[in-house]
């Protein structure tokens, strides 16, 4: 396939860009100015106001008003900001003399143009509570951008700082002042610019000379597309790539292989998100808290962690890891005990039948677990739980569906039990909880059988609009205790970010934003 140079706009508009190939020689990889990265699929549509593109690539190209750091919020396009005492007005002081990589001026007026484009597609961003609360915004001058809210909203800076959709693209790249129908080019103000793409083969990013911050030490990043895990590992070992990075890019065998191998390094992050099963409390049987408790007791999370993930994903005791802000509230984990599971069912009036399944009023405890058929991991866990739950007298049927169908049924509440993953850092816990109040994923439908659903939702709303930190902590504790005691979620493991890389790569670390790869902090030893 012929390499396409990104000098026109037609190819970009199609959103079919990819990643792979771009040479295989070790000499090329050892170039001191070039880092070769790998991903399992191409970069896709990098429109920063939509959700189809690879987030690590969007982070390379685009900037946001603020940056999310390990210690809180840091300057981005805004060098500082002020928040009014009532929490309703945010005034951002925009850096002077910034430009997009195409030379267009990046000032408060360009930021307003981006907000106009995002608001023009408001229905696409229903997960953002902020869009319902923003009553207005304006560029009061070239270096001042102001946002007005109807109510205080403490996660606003987080939503403005995550990868999308509040990232800034050159107004020249918009179509008639909007981005909802695509863009003509992927031009931002980030540390890199996209210079070359071959669909499903590779993409090339080079330093953006107009970048307002410190220029990255790595001058060129080549991203190859290698879908197969074993092929990726072999390419790293042969020196054809420098870095494998991500939650689902590295398996336990690879970590073990490279951990003590000369010339390579491995690393593992703190928990980023929670792998879980959501229980639909509206379904017969599952509307009984005793049954939900029995399922909790019958789930051997340590065995899942060690047997399926070789310990790379630690067993999860609670819906959010205690390292997540506001989540360390002293919850007591459900112990694994088959005997306790059985005695709980017996005490609730269930009778063990001759077929080994508990029944009550002639109705057996038989449920279906929905999983994403594209996930081998979910299938393996489902088969394990099917065997485990049978031991305590619950029949579990497992059903895999292709990803879109799985998501549609989860959102509609068409499930007994379903796999899900929390939003993860830095969205947890606020975005995961916020989404529970409406049919974004399966949480809303699953919680409809709870007697305290309205009370939980009201507390979440108050969390998001509270300006009192102490009160906010108390409200989080209330919500997390209620969800834990209602046993709606069976937390399985905590996902982690993983990295394996050639030791010539310096500065590899994990970011507060789980999908970001810190390329601009990296360097290459000679």
Any overview of this molecule?
The protein is α+β, with helices and mostly antiparallel strands. The chain folds into 2 domains: 260 residues, 3-Layer(aba) Sandwich (D-Maltodextrin-Binding Protein, domain 2), CATH 3.40.190; 227 residues, Roll (Dipeptide-binding Protein, domain 3). The chain has 17 helices and 24 strands. The strands form 7 sheets. Strands 14-22-15-21-19-20 form a 6-stranded mixed beta sheet, with helices on both faces. A 5-stranded mixed beta sheet has the order 1-11-12-13-2, with no helix packed on it. Strand 16 and strand 17 form a beta hairpin. The two termini are 33 Å apart. The N terminus is likely disordered.
Question: Compute the gyration radius: what is it?
Answer: 24 Å
- Globally, the shape reads globular
Give me the CATH superfamily of the largest domain: Periplasmic binding protein-like II
SSE class: alpha+beta
Count of the domains? 2
Largest sheet: 6 strands, mixed
- The tally of helices reads 17
Major β-sheet strand ordering: 14-22-15-21-19-20
Q: Show unreliable segments.
A: 1-29
* E-strand count: 24
Q: What is CATH's topology name of the largest domain?
A: D-Maltodextrin-Binding Protein, domain 2
CATH architecture classification name of the largest domain? 3-Layer(aba) Sandwich
Helix content: 25-40%
């Amino acid at each position: 396939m012929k390499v396409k140079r990104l000098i026109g706009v037609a190819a970009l508009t199609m959103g079919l860009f990819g990643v792979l190939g771009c040479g295989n020689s070790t000499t090329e990889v050892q170039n001191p100015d070039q880092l070769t990265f790998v991903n399992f699929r191409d970069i896709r549509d990098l429109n920063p106001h939509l959700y189809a593109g690879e987030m690590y690539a969007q982070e390379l190209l685009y900037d946001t008003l603020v940056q999310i750091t390990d210690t809180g919020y840091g300057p981005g396009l805004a060098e500082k900001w002020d928040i009014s005492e009532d929490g309703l007005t945010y005034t951002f002081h925009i850096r002077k003399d910034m430009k997009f990589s195409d030379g267009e001026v990046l000032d408060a007026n360009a930021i307003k143009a981006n907000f106009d484009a995002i608001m023009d597609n408001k229905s696409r961003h229903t997960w953002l509570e902020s869009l319902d609360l923003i009553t207005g915004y304006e560029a009061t001058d070239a270096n001042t951008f102001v946002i007005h809210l109807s109510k205080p909203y403490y996660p606003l800076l987080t939503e403005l700082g995550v990868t999308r959709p509040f990232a800034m693209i050159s107004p020249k790249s918009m179509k008639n002042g909007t981005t909802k129908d695509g863009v003509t080019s992927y031009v931002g103000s980030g540390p890199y610019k996209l210079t070359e793409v071959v669909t499903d083969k590779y993409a090339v990013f080079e330093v953006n000379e107009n970048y307002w911050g410190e220029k990255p030490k790595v001058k060129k990043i080549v991203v190859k597309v290698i879908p197969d895990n074993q092929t990726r590992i072999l390419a790293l070992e042969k020196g054809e790539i420098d870095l494998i990075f991500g939650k689902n890019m590295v398996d336990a065998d690879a970590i073990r292989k490279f951990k003590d191998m000369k010339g390579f390094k491995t690393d593992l992050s703190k928990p980023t998100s929670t792998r879980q099963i959501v229980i639909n409390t509206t379904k017969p049987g599952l509307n009984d808290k005793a049954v939900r408790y029995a399922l909790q007791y019958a789930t051997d999370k340590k065995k899942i962690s060690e047997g399926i993930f070789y310990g790379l994903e630690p067993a999860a005791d609670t819906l959010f890891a205690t390292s997540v802000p506001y989540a360390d509230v002293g919850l007591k984990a459900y112990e694994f005990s088959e005997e306790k599971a059985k005695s709980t069912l017996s005490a609730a009036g269930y009778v063990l039948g001759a077929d080994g399944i508990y029944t009550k009023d002639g109705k057996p405890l038989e449920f279906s677990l929905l999983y994403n058929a594209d996930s081998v991991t979910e299938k393996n866990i489902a088969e394990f739980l099917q065997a485990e739950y049978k031991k305590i007298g619950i029949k579990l049927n497992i059903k895999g569906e292709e990803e879109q169908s799985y998501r549609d049924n989860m959102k509609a509440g068409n499930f007994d039990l379903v796999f899900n993953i929390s939003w993860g850092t830095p969205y947890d816990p606020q975005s995961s909880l916020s989404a529970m109040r409406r049919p974004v994923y399966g949480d809303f439908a699953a919680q409809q059988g709870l007697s305290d659903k309205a009370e939980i939702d009201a507390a979440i709303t108050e969390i998001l609009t509270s300006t009192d930190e102490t009160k906010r902590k108390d409200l989080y504790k209330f919500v997390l205790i209620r969800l834990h005691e209602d046993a709606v979620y069976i937390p399985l493991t905590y996902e982690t970010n993983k990295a394996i890389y050639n030791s010539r790569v310096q500065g590899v670390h994990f970011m507060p934003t789980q999908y970001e790869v810190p390329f601009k902090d990296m360097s290459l030893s000679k």
